[in-house]
């Protein structure tokens, strides 16, 4: 991929750049099809035969490296015994989206296409690692804090739009409330805990919320204190999404002011993996982080 | 107890530096086991290893499966509730505390490793049950004082403890006296405690494969491997009585029923009960 995806402020820019999203969606689609095939106990060659594709082509489809025709997907679903109409419609809807790079263009007010893609990725991930330099991670923000952050980025936006953006952010958090949530492993620079976004009262509530969130079983939070001096993440915030499937590569996601970037080339991803590994070994361990945040809350 | 530092021999000890440019055993294992927490240097080392010793994947899996059977045995049959797991490795499916706590939720596990990446992952990914406890110690196996002092916060050394040393003693060369290290650990635990070891074997592969394996690994890795014979591995168990079936290839140790295994591991393994 390695592609810059146009952001919410400029939803009509650069059609070909949305290819990255299509890739990601194809990966998700392929993974779903593979799960369904394995659940049905059907070998790759037999599935390939059904749609006149070689074994290797079917494998490439299942890892999202090549696209699939809707007709072929329908045939595969039938072969896999997927008769439930709703399930079929869901898989086919994903396929349609992955075949239409400009699908996001319809979101012309606040919902940038790259964010929808990110939501899709986030909900498919088994581990989400993130590094935040300025703000509390979106998945752990309180409503008031999220509102204050949103106002910072959209100073002139009408109240109604701010509220839509806030509700979008809160919707994202539902991923952690799932029955089998992804592991969320976040590292934050101390700056993100000290900057009183929304004022002291909002920040205090946010920090208390963080302490509570950091104790949840699937959540790990580590802070990089100022006292550690410079650190490996000087270049800024990013997330790495990992998927359970062995064949799916990690995806790095970097949000910029008016766009976002996805990286899934091994060499690029590995650079970020190394930074985040280094950060997590330099940062306070999760248990010490909780007391650090409690202290920060009492000083806010 | 002796001071660890006086026991030092020829190799550097203490926590490893953060270095992804040299292959690390834990990350090479991770790659062999199909994990994603490894770097280009680790994968290159794994591929070079597989070129001379295709059985490496099987051996890595067999070692992991041995861990599972050993911890299950110790928890379910030997009644052990405290584990000192030295050489944790990158977390993957079926970690020590998960297996133990699935049988006895009150089980307490102290993980020890000297690789900063392993420790960061262990702290972030290993969740204890509410009834039990887990702790992570950043220490080199050679520094037994540090390990025992750190573990004392979670483990009660007046009650039996299982000390597990899986695929780690072969990273300790003879000048660092691995036998004294194991003896110091066993001295700290009461009679009725257990010792579990898996160890790279020097007498299971033909000489030529062994030589290529050694050249391939020891020219690259952050840790050099010292392969040992069955008899040399048996010496670690001097003050214990071996649990059936004794010291065998790890895949022969109380195998679970199922289809015959598809390979032959290159590691010796055993569990002994301290007299």
Structure, explained:
The complex is a heterodimer of chains A (300) and B (275). With 300 residues, chain A is α/β, with parallel strands linked by helices. In chain A, 50% of the residues lie in helices and 13% in strands. Chain A has a seven-stranded mixed β-sheet with strand order 1-7-6-5-2-3-4, sandwiched between helices. Chain B is of the alpha/beta class and 275 residues long. In chain B, strands 1, 2, 3, 4, 5, 6, 7 and 8 form an eight-stranded mixed β-sheet that branches. The longest helix of chain B is centred in the first third of the chain and has 22 residues, at 56-77. Classes of the chains: A alpha/beta (300), B alpha/beta (275). The interface between A and B is medium-sized, with 20 and 17 residues.
What secondary-structure arrangement, pairings included, does this model have?
The complex is a heterodimer of chains A (300) and B (275).
Chain A: E1 3-6, H1 19-39, H2 44-50, H3 55-62, H4 70-79, H5 85-99, H6 113-124, E2 127-132, H7 143-153, H8 159-172, E3 183-189, H9 190-194, H10 200-214, E4 219-224, E5 238-242, E6 251-255, E7 259-263, H11 266-282, H12 286-299
Parallel strand pairs in A: 2-3, 3-4
Antiparallel strand pairs in A: 1-7, 2-5, 5-6, 6-7
Chain B: H1 25-32, H2 40-52, H3 56-77, E1 82-86, H4 96-103, E2 108-113, H5 116-125, E3 133-138, H6 144-151, E4 162-166, H7 178-187, E5 194-200, H8 207-218, H9 230-234, E6 240-242, E7 248-249, E8 267-274
Helix pairs in contact in B: 1-2, 2-8, 3-4
Sum this structure up briefly:
The complex is a heterodimer of chains A (300) and B (275). Chain A has twelve helices and seven strands.
Poorly predicted regions of chain B are: 1-10
* Beta strands of chain A, count: 7
Mean pLDDT of chain A: 81
Shape of chain B: globular
Percentage of β-strand residues of chain B: 15-25%
Helical amount among residues of chain B, as a percent range? 25-40%
What is the terminal-to-terminal distance of chain B? Answer: 20 Å
Spatial arrangement of strands, main beta sheet of chain A? 1-7-6-5-2-3-4
Describe the largest sheet of chain A. Answer: 7 strands, mixed
Task: Identify the biggest protein-protein contact and residues per side.
Answer: A-B, 20 and 17 residues
Radius of gyration of chain A: 21 Å
Poorly predicted ranges of chain A = 1-18, 101-108
Count of individual helical segments of chain A? 12
């Amino acid at each position: 991929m390695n592609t810059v995806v146009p952001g919410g402020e400029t939803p009509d820019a650069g059609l070909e750049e949305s290819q990255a999203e299509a890739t990601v969606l194809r990966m998700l689609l392929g993974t779903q099809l593979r799960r369904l095939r394995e659940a049905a106990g059907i070998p790759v060659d037999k599935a390939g035969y059904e749609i006149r594709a070689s074994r290797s082509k079917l494998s490439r489809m299942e890892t999202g490296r090549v696209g699939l025709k809707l007709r072929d997907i329908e045939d595969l679903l039938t072969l896999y015994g997927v008769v439930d109409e709703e399930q079929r419609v869901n898989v086919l809807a994903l396929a349609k989206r992955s075949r239409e790079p400009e699908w996001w263009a319809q979101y012309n007010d606040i919902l940038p296409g790259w964010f929808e893609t990110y939501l899709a990725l986030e909900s498919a991930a088994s581990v989400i690692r993130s590094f935040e330099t300025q703000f509390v991670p979106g998945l752990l923000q309180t409503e008031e804090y999220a509102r204050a952050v949103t106002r910072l980025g959209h100073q002139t936006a009408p109240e109604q739009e701010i509220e839509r953006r806030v509700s979008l952010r809160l919707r994202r958090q539902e991923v952690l409330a799932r029955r089998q949530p992804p592991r969320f492993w976040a590292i934050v620079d101390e700056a993100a805990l000290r900057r009183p976004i929304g004022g002291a009262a909002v920040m205090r509530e946010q920090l208390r919320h963080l302490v509570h969130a950091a104790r949840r079983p699937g959540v790990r939070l580590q802070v990089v204190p100022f006292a550690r001096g410079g650190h490996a993440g000087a270049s800024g915030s990013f997330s790495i999404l990992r998927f359970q499937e062995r064949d799916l590569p990690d995806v790095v996601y970097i949000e910029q002011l008016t766009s976002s970037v996805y990286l899934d080339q091994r060499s690029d991803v590995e650079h970020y993996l190394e930074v985040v590994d280094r950060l997590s070994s330099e940062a306070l361990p999760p248990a010490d982080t909780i007391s650090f945040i409690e202290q920060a809350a009492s000083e806010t | 107890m002796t001071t660890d530092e006086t026991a030092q021999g020829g190799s550097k000890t203490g926590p490893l530096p953060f270095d992804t440019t040299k292959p690390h055993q834990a990350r090479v294992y991770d790659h062999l086991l199909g994990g994603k927490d490894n770097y280009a240097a680790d994968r290159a080392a794994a591929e070079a290893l597989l070129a001379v010793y295709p059985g490496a994947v099987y051996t890595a899996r067999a070692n992991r499966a041995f861990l599972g059977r050993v911890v299950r045995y110790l928890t379910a049959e030997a009644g052990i509730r405290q584990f000192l797991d030295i050489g944790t490795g990158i977390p993957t499916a079926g970690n020590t505390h998960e297996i133990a706590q699935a049988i006895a939720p009150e089980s307490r596990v102290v993980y020890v490793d000297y690789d900063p990446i392993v420790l960061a992952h262990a702290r972030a990914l290993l969740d204890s049950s509410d009834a039990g406890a887990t702790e992570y110690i950043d220490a080199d196996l050679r520094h037994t004082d540090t390990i025992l002092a750190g573990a004392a916060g979670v483990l009660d050394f007046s009650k039996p403890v299982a000390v597990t040393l899986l695929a780690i003693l072969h990273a300790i060369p003879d000048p660092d006296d691995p036998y004294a290290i194991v003896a110091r650990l066993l001295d700290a635990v009461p009679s009725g405690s257990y010792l579990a070891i898996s160890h790279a074997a020097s007498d299971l592969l033909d000489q030529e494969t062994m030589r290529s394996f050694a050249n391939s690994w020891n020219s690259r890795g952050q840790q050099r491997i010292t392969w040992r014979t069955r008899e040399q591995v048996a010496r670690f168990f001097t003050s214990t009585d071996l649990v059936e079936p004794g010291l065998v290839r790890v895949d022969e140790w109380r195998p679970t029923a199922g289809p015959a295994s598809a390979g032959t591991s290159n590691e010796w393994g055993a569990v002994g009960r301290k007299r």
